[in-house]
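User: Could you check the structure of this?
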Amino acid sequence: MFRKLSLLIFGVFACSTAVIMIKVCTVHPVLLSAYRLGLAALFLSPLLVRDLRRHRGQFGLAHLRRTLLPGLVLAAHILSWIIGARKTPAANSSLIVNMVPIVMPFLLYALIRERVTRAEWIATGLSLTGVAVLVGADLNLSAKFFTGDVICFGSMILFASYLALGRRNRDFPSIWLYVVPVYFVGGVVCFTTSLFFANPFVLPARNELVLILGLVIVPTVIGHSILNYSMKHIRGQAVSIANLAQFIFAGIMGFLLLDEAPQWTFFFACALVVGGALLALRSTPDRLR
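Assistant: Sure, the predicted structure tokens are below.
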């Protein structure tokens, strides 16, 4: 249990690094999305091949078909978030795109009939109170970030759908037989789309390649893969609440690396979100499956 929860927190941190690299990188959003997902699938392909051999006869075309929708949703989420993250501060974009607990209960019930427990509802309310405090401050004091915030909110809906689909597909023989095809589908969609907006056959500058590589390895290969693993083994709403901590890590990195000083509301929201995450992870008796 402790290992799975520790892994989840590490995955949340890994995902939170994406916003910093996205804001520093200047590669076109569609092309950056294609690099991120396509290279992630390429780097993880040896694990896919290994598990295909290990689970011979347990994985087939039916499984591959089930990765098409999550791949499409992931591509739309990654693309929309890159656009939104470049239009609003790091803490705001990470916060809004991770307001997944708002919609996750409805998605979980619609897809797999998983009901949120009383403890998880209380934890959700506590965490979202922190979200409301921070978002309210942003809307009052930073109207110039409104467009970016709206785009990130739409990306949040896509992110929640992607995670919920991962929970529905938790019966795959291994996590790599699920996430690698999902990344591949998303990469193909983004690459095809990039043909209409940028030239995917011209290599970016060396410093951009370093950022792309970091974006592929840390928040995607490590972060997203861990989130999908957690959705396989931990109750969906508990994962979505813990994932809210992304904005805490992103806010700290935004201050240290981008000189984006958080307001006092940021720290108050942090306390509420952490409290809600701890309650969800510790008070739900059947959170692990």
